[in-house]
Every structure is written in structure tokens, then in C-alpha cells.
Amino acid sequence: MNNYFSIQDIDSLSDWVDEAIKIKKKPLANTTLGLGKTIGLLFFNPSLRTRLSTHKAALNLGMDVVVMNFTAEGWSLEYGDGTIMDQGNSEHIKEAAQVISQYCDILAIRAFAKLKNRTEDYNEKVLSGFIKYASIPVINMESATRHPLQALTDAITITEYKKINKPKVVLSWAPHPKALPQAVANSFVEMMQRMDADFVITHPQGLELASQITKQVPIDYNQENALKDADFVYVKNWSSYIDYGKVDHNNTAWKITEEKMKLTNNAQLMHCLPVRRNVVVDDSVLDSETTIVIEQANNRTYAAQLVLKKILEKF
Ligand code: CP
Prior knowledge:
Layout: H1 13-25, E1 38-43, H2 49-60, E2 64-69, H3 70-73, E3 77-78, E4 91-92, H4 93-103, E5 106-110, H5 118-122, H6 125-133, E6 138-140, H7 148-161, E7 168-173, H8 183-194, E8 198-202, H9 211-214, E9 219-220, H10 223-227, E10 232-236, H11 258-261, E11 268-270, H12 283-286, H13 293-312
Parallel strand pairs: 1-2, 1-5, 3-4, 5-6, 7-8, 7-10, 8-9, 10-11
Helix pairs in contact: 1-7, 1-13, 2-13, 4-6, 7-8, 7-13
The structure holds phosphoric acid mono(formamide)ester.
């Protein structure tokens, strides 16, 4: 594996999940694997979990870590080929990616969707640009359309917490005051198609994710119907793919409540975090024993550590 851009870079999912669970039991078993190697973490957007868990994962493998909040601290980048750079952008991605490749051995990047132009976002200008021009492996720490470290985390968490071989997993849209990208939902949908799960997506009509991602996954526009007998409820907001970037924050009826969780098979509630309490999901659910969001966030470290280990083993 050269880059970790999407979950398509995982060859055997069950082997990866098993190995991540082993890493979790002994996170300091490979403290020399990354000695003398540096990872650069570039953030074009805010982060808590991704930043700290990837940093910790690198430290667990003996790596050095350099972090840059690129939007605040870096030169604004130009991505176009042949652009006459007489406007606002100061540095071309061609030079930036090659220069960083001399300072670091692995590069990890977070660059969200701008939600203005669907074609631009789904072309993954930033991640694709770095992958094209960098001469080192690139890891996606959430790009415009994918969050594969989160999806690997989610696979690990469902494997750990499932009580039956083929659990019913429901991805439910929920309201949010801001327009959010589709990246987490896209990668989760792709991951569930690779897991042994009875998987259903529920959202209001008009909030369909890209059909090239959802493929044959059943979609139920009736949330209460979809939640029936669920073993896992993964709640997440996303803005419209069809009416690109449009936010539907008034749809408060889609919030996850205690009453709705009673329809499930005592389901465990998942969310990638951060979560808006009492907008996306009620306090009474988040503070109950059915919630595994903190345990889920803990697994971010082991997902990142596994990806780093796989890349380091190839050096
Ligand atoms: N789930 C997730 O990616 O969290 P952060 O945005 O805090 O990194």
C-alpha cells in the first residue's frame, strides 16, 4: 500500500481489523518501526480526534511528528495547471508537495469539501494534487469526499461490539445547523458494503448520497421503520449531494431520541464526533449506556497506527 486515500486501499478487511485489535492490546509492541522517520500532518480544517490520534499513533511507532495548520500558517496554494499566478495564491502545489516530501517520510492531509462545486469536490483537488506531486506516501485524514481512517475505526468498533455475526446497522441522517460534507457517510457506506452486516440507510427524501457510493444499499425514507431491530445506530448529518451543499437544519423530527432508540434491538449508538447535543441526538441517549462514541473515538488511534504500520513495513 503506497497511499491510504480510501477504504479501497484495504486489501483484506478482516485481517486489518484483527491486526488493529491486536495493536490495541499492545500499542507499544513496535516502538522502533518508525525510528528516524517523520510524518507531516497538514490541516486545512479543524480537528480534535484525527489530529491527536494520528499523532499518538505515530509516537507509538517511534516516529517524529511535525504538524502544520496549513490554512493559517502556510502559503495559499494554487492547484491549476498553467495558471498565471498573479492573483491571491502564492505557491503552487507542485513545489509544496515536492518540498514537503524532502522533509517528511509520510504525509497526512485533512482538506474538507468546500461544498460550493460538486465536481470540484468530487475530483478531490487537494488530496489528488498531493498524491500526484508528492514522492512519499499520502494518508487521507478526511478529504472532500472520504474519511477512511474514521471508516476503519468504525469497522473495528462494530467488530468489537457486535453480539451476532451479522448485525443490523442503520446509518441515520440527523439535522445539523451547518452544512456538513458527505465524507464520513460516504466512507461508512463503502465500509458497510464490505462488512457482514444487514445495512440500511435512512434519510429524508432528497438527501440521497451519491448513487455510485450507495449502489444497492437499501434506503428507507421512514426513519422509525429503518430503526426497528437495529443492533447499531450510526447517526450523522450530511448536506445535500443533489442540491449540492444545501443544509436541511429545520428537519428536527430526524433527531435521535430515547423513544426512537426503544424501537431498536437495544442498539449501540455511534457517531464520529464532534456531535451537536440535542440537535443530532438527545442528551438522554448520548449519556446512556447504549452509547459507544467514546470507545469509538478511542479506536481512532489503532486505525491510524495500523495504517502507519502497513506503510512503514514497506520502507
Ligand atoms: N471524527 C473526526 O474526524 O473528528 P475530528 O474532526 O475531531 O478529527
